[in-house]
Amino acid sequence: MTAAPAPDPALPDPALPDLDALPKAEFAFPGPLRDRLVAAILDGSKTATTGLVADYEHDGDPLPRPGHREVVVDSSGRPVAVIEVTQVRVVPLAEVDLAHAVDEGEGHTSVAEWRADHERFWHGEEMRAALGDPGFTVDDATPAVLERFRVVTVLPGTAG
Question: pTM to 2 decimals?
Fold first, then answer.
């Protein structure tokens, strides 16, 4: 019996998705929060996320849909995993439920705690600058995009 030839490192691995063809999933802004969120995705504790319709509209991006795949990048822009959206709901911020808040994997044990953390993020300088609105605020009626996802692939060389 002869051993199979070693794969040519110059050729793409056929088992991996074409990362260049996938949009990037950038959780929060580069830095400690993104690092925590990416770690939670990799360890399986983060299976949901929340965006704002206003952010999608500002960027001219369509809302996510089930089956949509993205490559998750860390704070240095390095691809670490591929995720697939399994469910999307658009609801007023006041209708975010505890199951969603818990499934975001940030350790929240109440919707009020989840909301306070998210409002700090959405009302922060980086988010307001990204939206081009220094006075941006959210309230109970703000449309939120609630996504659930699953990890399809953890990419080679990723600690997790």
Answer: 0.84
